[in-house]
């Protein structure tokens, strides 16, 4: 969804747009990586999965993220249908919580695997060449 919005915002005649479309057609892996790319998205999904479903709770968990960046990352995740925003009834002002969709929940074990991979091969770790 958001990918479509971004494509419309980008000039369709641009080289970036053409390259992106070409990569997405080659393999869905490229589209998937695009959906979760961003410095904070993996952690945001993980923290929402743990129950930190309000903006201020996410800010507490991610103290180095600015409000603007957190809002943008949440909006992008929502645009990709990884999470949805839901109003909390009977709150003044209206409270909002974030809920992972099935797509977002299915992403959690993938993020866990990426985390394990990162622990094995993070910068500075010895890599053996067969």
UniProtKB/TrEMBL annotation:
Domain HTH hxlR-type: 27-126
SUPFAM superfamilies: Winged helix' DNA-binding domain
Record keywords, A-Z: DNA-binding, Transcription, Transcription regulation
Gene3D superfamilies: Winged helix-like DNA-binding domain superfamily/Winged helix DNA-binding domain
Pfam families found in the cross-reference section: HxlR
InterPro entries membership: HTH_HxlR, WH-like_DNA-bd_sf, WH_DNA-bd_sf
GO molecular function: DNA binding
Classification via PROSITE patterns: HTH_HXLR (PS51118)
Name the record gives this protein: Transcriptional regulator, HxlR family
